[in-house]
Design brief:
It is a single chain. By secondary structure, the chain is of the alpha/beta class. It has one domain: Rossmann fold, CATH 3.40.50. The chain has eight helices and eleven strands. Helix 5 links the parallel strand 8 and strand 9. The chain starts with 12 loop residues before the first strand and ends in a 6-residue tail after the last helix. The structure holds adenosine-5'-diphosphate. The site of adenosine-5'-diphosphate (ADP) has 17 residues, from helix 1, strand 9, strand 11 and helix 7. Pfam families: ParA (PF10609). Heterotetramer of 2 NUBP1 and 2 NUBP2 chains. Interacts with KIFC1. Interacts with NUBP1. InterPro entries: Mrp-like_CS (IPR000808), Mrp/NBP35_ATP-bd (IPR019591), NUBP2/Cfd1_eukaryotes (IPR028600), P-loop_NTPase (IPR027417), YlxH/NBP35 (IPR033756). Its main location: cytoplasm.
């Protein structure tokens, strides 16, 4: 059970999981969303904290990019995605004046902002808090780990793609986790093959299986593969209310559950 007086908003959060990737564009944020939706589908209360300060994409993916953060006496209130309030999100994106704004953060400001997100958001009762981090391993990751190590930080899920360059980056992530004593919960291979929109057959356009091999080599759990699927891109692009978005992701995930391609 996470609990510390320094982080009152996290006191009732049972599990905290970081999602890491060696580089940008491998699908870390989309995997974070799919993981959160899957956990909610299993009956858990789930929150997503988007700490990708330079490219916060979670609000767009969940169709709540126009939402604003509200302040309550207990802290910042996250944005609720589903009417039962068991799926919530907080992102730096909610603080930006518009979606085209970009912010250039200097190191100390980044660390301060991350600390503020960890201390000031009141999550309430959560089974899982999924933290989407920036790509690579940087000061932001160190800030998160240093701040949360006193709490129960369960560990990290690594996201990779089959291409060798991404796998090299995963090795760096593994070294980082080892150095900061962050357990690695497992690995997801994203963009593993392409699903034809007509026949639904999955073709390996890059070499596949690299993630699985890497997991075996480093004795990590291999959570499964998610193919390149144009219907996922559609989900991410269609602008809808947060609740509709949840339903669509849920259907998307069910599809992979049934074909055993997505097994987290
Ligand atoms: P990251 O967080 O690693 O930068 P994103 O999750 O933002 O990556 O994904 C990058 C882009 O790739 C997004 O436009 C997303 O729609 C697309 N994408 C991610 N995973 C898949 C997938 N399995 N199939 C199709 N498109 C994907």
């Amino acid at each position: 059970m996470a609990g510390s007086t320094n982080f009152p908003g996290l006191e009732k959060v049972k599990h905290i999981v970081l999602v890491l990737s060696g580089k940008g564009g491998v699908g870390k944020s989309s995997v974070s969303v799919q993981l959160a939706v899957a956990l909610k589908e299993l009956g858990n209360k789930v929150g997503i904290l988007d700490l990708d300060l330079c490219g916060p994409s979670i609000p767009r993916m969940l169709g709540v990019e126009k939402s604003k953060i509200h302040q309550a006496s207990s802290g910042w209130v996250p944005v609720y995605i589903t009417p039962d309030r068991n799926f919530s999100v907080m992102s730096i994106g909610f603080l930006l004046p518009d979606k085209n704004s970009s912010v250039v953060w200097r190191g100390p400001k980044k660390s301060a902002m991350i600390k503020q997100f960890l201390t000031d958001v009141y999550w309430g009762d959560l089974d899982y808090l999924i933290i989407d981090t920036p790509p690579g391993t940087s000061d932001e990751h160190l800030s998160v780990v240093e701040n949360l190590q006193a709490l129960k930080l369960d560990g990290a899920i690594l996201v990779t793609t089959p291409q060798a360059v991404s796998l090299v980056d995963v090795r760096k992530e593994l070294n980082f986790c080892h150095e900061v004593k962050l357990p690695v919960l497992g690995l997801v291979e994203n963009m593993s093959g392409y699903v034809c929109t007509n026949c639904k057959e999955c073709t390996n356009i890059f070499s596949s299986g690299g993630g699985k091999k890497l997991a075996e080599e480093f004795k990590l759990n291999f959570f499964g593969s998610v193919p390149i699927d144009p219907s996922l891109v559609e989900q991410l692009d269609i602008s809808a209310t947060g609740c509709d978005e949840f339903e669509r992701y849920s259907k998307f995930i069910q599809q992979y559950k049934s074909s055993a391609l997505y097994e987290i």
